[in-house]
Amino acid sequence: MQHTLTDQLVDDHTILQVVVGSRAFGLSSAASDTDRRGVFALPASAFWGLRKPARHHDGPLDEQVRWEVERVCTLGLAANPTVLEVLHSPLIETCTPLGAELRALTPAFLSRRVADTYLRYATAQFAKAERGIARTGAPVWRHVMHLVRLLTAGGDLVRTGRLVLDVGADRDRLLAVKAGEVPWADIVAWRDQLVRRMTTDLATSPLPDQPDEGRVEQWLISVRERSVRCSS
């Protein structure tokens, strides 16, 4: 059984908090939520007992989720799109010295592995959208918009080695998808084009074949070691 985390404990150990979602993607409106995601680094002693602390914490603000730093490292090395967006969001609300170190470490998480992760996720979610069409006649258009956006960002990352969250010139077209104004056949064609481009660009991508797991692990160990020294 895991230890229950409190808002105050997570607040006290938060090293990075950013805004993601529509506001970071350049797709927000006046009615958009503010999606906050963050990273906290618990003291090493929290892991010494039999009952380990939870690896994530929701709240207390609406649409606020924070993960323990080890979980962020694990997901980041697996090219998890959500975690990569947290590490690259330009909308920073909290960043301690440890948070700045984590942000500086972001290149170590990037590798050609992102193509597989992004494509597998998009394929599964598009299949879910198609089941929604078969069941109700329409998918959740907001989800479809974000799938296309994810494929676009992933393709740019594979091609350039940089993850840019803002959708730029695709804003109006993506918002039209969200409004249900783009025929499904056109969305499928757009998706297929993005998939082909990402697959083709993978062979010449500037990204390394694998993330730098050793560098990430070394940093995580240093975070734990410093925590022990500070508490002694």
List keywords for this structure.
single chain; 232 residues; alpha+beta; Beta Polymerase, domain 2; 2 domains; 5-stranded mixed sheet; 55% helix; 11% strand
Give the SSE map.
Layout (H helix, E strand, L loop, with lengths): L6 H6 L1 E7 L1 H4 L9 E6 L15 E3 L5 E5 H9 L3 H8 L3 E4 L1 H8 L1 H4 L3 H24 L4 H20 L10 H8 L5 H18 L11 H19 L1
Parallel strand pairs: 2-4
Antiparallel strand pairs: 1-2, 1-5, 3-4
* Distance N to C terminus: 27 Å
Structural domain count? 2
Q: What is the chain-wise order of helices and strands? A: HEHEEEHHEHHHHHHH
**CATH architecture descriptor text of the largest domain:** 2-Layer Sandwich
Computed over alpha carbons, the radius of gyration is 19 Å
Mean pLDDT: 93
Largest sheet: 5 strands, mixed
Computed structural class: alpha+beta
Q: Order of strands in the sheet with the most strands?
A: 3-4-2-1-5
CATH class type of the largest domain: Alpha Beta
Low-confidence stretches: none
Outline:
It is built from eleven helices and five strands, in the order H-E-H-E-E-E-H-H-E-H-H-H-H-H-H-H. With 232 residues, the protein is α+β, with helices and mostly antiparallel strands. InterPro entries: RlaP.
Walkthrough of the structure:
InterPro entries: RlaP. This is Nucleotidyltransferase. By secondary structure, the chain is of the alpha+beta class. It has two domains: 7-110 and 212-231, Beta Polymerase, domain 2 (2-Layer Sandwich), CATH 3.30.460; 113-204, no CATH class. 55% of the residues lie in helices and 11% in strands. The protein contains eleven helices and five strands. It has helices at 7-12, 22-25, 69-77, 81-88, 97-104, 106-109, 113-136, 141-160, 171-178, 184-201, 213-231, and strands spanning 14-20, 35-40, 56-58, 64-68, 92-95. Strands 3-4-2-1-5 form a five-stranded mixed beta sheet. Helix 7 packs antiparallel against helix 8, helix 8 (141-160) runs antiparallel to helix 9 and helix 8 packs parallel to helix 10 (184-201). The longest helix is centred in the middle third of the chain and has 24 residues, at 113-136. The chain is globular. The two termini are 27 Å apart. The model has no long low-confidence stretch (mean pLDDT 93).
